[in-house]
Amino acid sequence: MSRAELRIGIRSLEGNIKSLYRFSQKPIIAVLKANAYGVGALQVALLMDKLEEISALAVACVEEGIDLRKVGVRKKILVLGGVLKGEEKAFVEYNLTPVVSHKEHLKALAGLNIPIQIKYDTGMGRLGFLEEVIKDDRVEGILSHLSSPLDEEYSKLQIERFVKILNHYRGLKYVHMESSAGVVYRIPFTTHIRVGLALYGEKPMPNYLVSLTPALELRAKILSVKTLPAGFSVSYSRTYITEKSTRVGVVAFGYADGLMKSLSNKAYLFYKGKPVKIIGNITMDMTMVDLTNTDAQVGDWIEIVGQNQSFTDLAKLAGTIPYELMTNLSSRIRRELCL
Ligand SMILES: *Cc1c(COP(=O)(O)O)cnc(C)c1O
């Protein structure tokens, strides 16, 4: 029934997880913050909850953790964004594991008997202690985050700083630092990898060493097809004028759905594997494409992301990153798990 859907391929998702696991030889902490990067956290989390390669899930804030527990997720849930005063009771009630990155977080957790993990800032310049060793029996793990995983020299510096901190701890169950792109460093002393983007088959760098298959397909239906004569303008502000008689399709997907306006007159969508150019300005709910030389009809699907183009490809054209493109996908897109 829906006009726009994001299809999540279960087989591909599972294949990517196995592939990441095989490559790193480490269990995975699946990062599902921001509604699993827009993919749909509840559906993805319930799937991940059953996979043995996944040892925990990670979210940004306590509310996201609560939502996962409420739908029945049983695995460990890490809350990356720490814990502020007033939130601590929810961590106990919903069995969430706080990532502590400030003395104030520790204060909020005073007297509560739950496991905690400590975050170190080895060069990200965001959350984390610089080098302070936290002497607390509740500490079950430490973590850090690479700021520029494509920069080998800087990443190695961060890894060196992290191992120095690790040497002050004993008997930790969790030591983790590698994100999707960071996996290629195969850090010898970490126990887990902590990945988000790569789960979906989006490659974090051009020659990524882990083999992935695209797990996401984003598509929308054609609302109208009509032939416009030469010299006719298409969409707001008349940024496109037909040069010849043109078969123009209107796709039920606009910038409010997450297709950035900056892709107007620039990107291609796909009809049955064939590229069809976006013409004129993308509007709030609709996008026009040139369907000349196709037999596309009203009600047919147009692929926005899938086998022919990834979120990473489209993001590059829009001058952004796949994370931003994906987290902008609107709630009116139907998310569906498929085989
Ligand atoms: C988002 C995030 C990740 C996952 O990064 P990907 O590039 O999607 O694998 C890992 N760790 C932290 C702290 C994050 O914020």
Q: Reading side by side through the largest sheet, how are the strands ordered?
A: 8-7-6-5-4-3-2-9
Task: Tell me what the CATH architecture of the largest domain is.
Answer: Alpha-Beta Barrel
Please, what is the average pLDDT? 98
Low-confidence stretches: none
What would you note in describing this structure?
This protein is α/β, with parallel strands linked by helices. The chain folds into 2 domains: 10-200, TIM Barrel; 216-338, Lyase, Ornithine Decarboxylase, Chain A, domain 1, CATH 2.40.37. Helices cover 23% and strands 25% of the residues. It is built from 9 helices and 18 strands. The chain has helices spanning 10-24, 33-37, 41-48, 62-70, 88-93, 103-108, 152-166, 311-318, 322-327; strands at 4-9, 28-31, 54-59, 76-79, 97-100, 116-120, 139-144, 174-176, 193-195, 216-228, 233-234, 240-241, 246-251, 268-271, 274-277, 287-290, 301-305, 334-338. The strands form 4 sheets. The protein has an 8-stranded parallel sheet with strand order 8-7-6-5-4-3-2-9. Strands 1, 10, 13, 16, 17 and 18 form a 6-stranded mixed sheet that branches. Strand 11 (233-234) and strand 12 form a beta hairpin. 45% of the residues are buried. The model has no long low-confidence stretch (mean pLDDT 98). The structure holds pyridoxal-5'-phosphate. Residues 31, 33, 80, 145, 179-181, 194-198, 204 line the site of pyridoxal-5'-phosphate (PLP). The site of pyridoxal-5'-phosphate has 13 residues, from strand 9.
